[in-house]
Amino acid sequence: IPEILGPDSEALIEAGRADLFGAVMARALTDPDWSRRTMPSPQSFRSRFSASVMARDIEALYRAQLARI
Fold it and tell me: Which UniProt keywords apply (predicted)?
């Protein structure tokens, strides 16, 4: 998911490419630094995708749309 990992993440592969999926999984299992390089920190993830942040952002979107009516 590019929104979480970033558009250039080495964890992202083209849909339908089982060969690439296997290669990424092998790297994730054998490279001790893969997760640190590839995955967002828990703090970064929570700052963008926690329930409270998502609820706040959706509420702001709804309020903005209601203001247009």
Answer: Transferase
